[in-house]
């Protein structure tokens, strides 16, 4: 009887320890990432051809998403992004995707195969620097009309939190 009680206590202790360790790691990871308070203009190649810049792509609210074709989490959030585009696009939301694939050809194929309707730029150092050079994907930035970053998600975006921010910025 005592042996099973000790085993249960050991498991509970291990789970609590792992929870604290994960929380501490997560907090340290977020501290290392240096997000900008304001997004400065940057120019990059559009994966469909030509160039574009942040200033011409932004909306009343802008959702900037760092992505790549090989990233499972990036693919997982596409249905949410498409839903946001349909729901909030007519109200002033612009989605700007920055693809971190090695080549524009791969990025273009990804955009076409996933039927992504918004602008997708191919990454460059200026674009990533303007976004704080996060070094991870996916990362999503909710930016207001004055280019101030209102919210950042690392990993698959938090749908409820981003929806709340978009509603707030778009006056709903």
From TrEMBL:
It comes from the Bacteria. Pfam families: AhpC-TSA. One of its GO terms (molecular function) is oxidoreductase activity. PROSITE patterns: THIOREDOXIN_1, THIOREDOXIN_2. The chain crosses the membrane at residues 6-25. The keyword Transmembrane applies. Residues 33-172 form the Thioredoxin domain. Keywords: Membrane, Redox-active center, Transmembrane, Transmembrane helix. Gene3D superfamilies: Glutaredoxin. PANTHER family: PROTEIN DIPZ, THIOL:DISULFIDE INTERCHANGE PROTEIN DSBE. This is Alkyl hydroperoxide reductase/ Thiol specific antioxidant/ Mal allergen. It comes from Fibrobacter succinogenes (strain ATCC 19169 / S85).
